[in-house]
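LAB NOTEBOOK - FOLDING QUEUE
OPERATOR: T.R.
BATCH SIZE: 2
PURPOSE: Compare the predicted structure-token outputs for two unrelated chains run back to back under identical settings.
PRIORITY: normal
REVIEWER: second-year student, initials M.K.

ITEM 1
FIELD SEQUENCE / FIELD STRUCTURE:
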Amino acid sequence: MPKNTDILNLFEYDVETDGKLTFNIGLALNDNFDKIDAFANGIQSLSNLNDLGEKRFNDINTQIAKSVTKTELYDSNGYIKIDKILKESYISGTSWYRIYSDGWIEQGGYLASCSNAGTDVNLLKSFSNTNYTIQVTPLEKIYNAHIAWATKKSKSVITLHSSANAGGTANLKSNWYACGY
């Protein structure tokens, strides 16, 4: 089944399931080239900006991830439309965060060991509520299979867990990411 990429929304065939479909040049090539060209034009515009107060830019991926057309990328003055600007960022070792002008917070880090019982992580920045998203990425394979997950304890604490196959325990290294308001 064909799908679209996450960032530029480019069309792509699925090699395993679309092998018998007729190749659509307009959809698979021309439309994708137009989206790439619009993205490159946006990057070129960013490199020409002089006055950041009037010509704000940041997080262009937010705009490009939407269905990319020139009218969606630029306002009536020809400036790139941006909803938020990075206000604050911080990195210390393997922990980091970013805060945007609209209150959006994203943060992440590395945990050297977590088990099925869980390991609490104090967030560098508290969220305004518990309606935030957490993602955990295991960095190693233990036994034949493993899983890693996170739970929310509060606006400022998450718990990371891991488990090996067949109910075994594992101390698993992982990266984590959380985002929300």
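ITEM 2
FIELD SEQUENCE / FIELD STRUCTURE:
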Amino acid sequence: MRKADPLMADARPAAGRAANAISTMRRWCNRLLLGCALTLTGVGLYQGSTALAAKQVKTLTVRGDVRHIDTEVIQARLTPRITDGFMAADLRDLRDELESLPWVYKVNTRRRWPAEIEVVLVEQRPLARWSDTGYLNHQGQFFAATQDGQYAHLPLLSGPDGAEGTLTRRYQMLTSQLEPEGPHNR
């Protein structure tokens, strides 16, 4: 039988301790690298978001098939509301501001990269005149607007406040019933 060498017996635990130390060192290096990566990512995100927040709107585009709305007036009205920057501009506030105007039916707003805010206007389409104070649109909603001669041919409806929708539906029902059917002879 072979006798155990006392020097070799001490070498095995020393090798295990060295391997254990290397493994611990690797774990700490991995943690350190992960911490550095997370810190650099956080700093990059912060700098990117502050740069994006500071980015100014370069172009305010107003589009739409409009006859009663002056797009230059709309741009002048919206310009003070977008001075905070591209990402800070409140699109819902812009939409609400414009939809409060008489001839504006609907507004779509969106950001377009890199520095444009686009506003698309849909104008009211009057279906009938309402007393002498404005018009009713296709949904029976009243909108206050000065009477325009080009709409003098529209029917004149009037009634108590809150009856606009009911009267519009009745008017639409009557006009559909009074439409001629088939080809008509003259």
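REVIEWER COMMENT (ITEM 2): The mean pLDDT is 85.
FOLLOW-UP: none requested
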